[in-house]
Amino acid sequence: MKRIGAIAATLLLSFFLAPSANAVPTQVILYYSTSSSAISITYSCAAGYHVNPPQPVVRLYSACERRVYLNQYSDGSGWAYCVNPWTASSIPAGYQYPGRVAVGAVAVC
Length: 109
Known about the structure:
By secondary structure, the protein is mostly beta strands. It has one domain (2-103): Gamma-B Crystallin, domain 1, CATH 2.60.20. It has one helix spanning 2-16; strands at 27-33, 38-44, 48-51, 57-63, 68-71, 80-83, 87-90, 100-103. Strands 2-1-4-7 form a four-stranded antiparallel β-sheet, covered by helices on one side. The protein has a four-stranded antiparallel β-sheet with strand order 3-8-5-6, with no helix packed on it. A hairpin with an 8-residue loop joins strand 5 and strand 6. The chain is globular.
């Protein structure tokens, strides 16, 4: 039982640390949480959007030169939360259930 606790603690710690310096600089990495684990999914840095991301989104890392938006609805309406290029961001509770992830322009928020 102690071993399971140690493994869980290690997984949680690695989940909240920024990705390593060896991360490929052409990815947007979205971290989401389930009741039993922390999981990540990787998107391209090409401009565009991805509808219905896994939820809740608890952390996002933009490992490229583009800003990334979480939009409330899949058509881009409602609230928006922006993450700057080359930035890891913990997502505030009010923005953890987006309808889409949009990879935007080469610019800051």
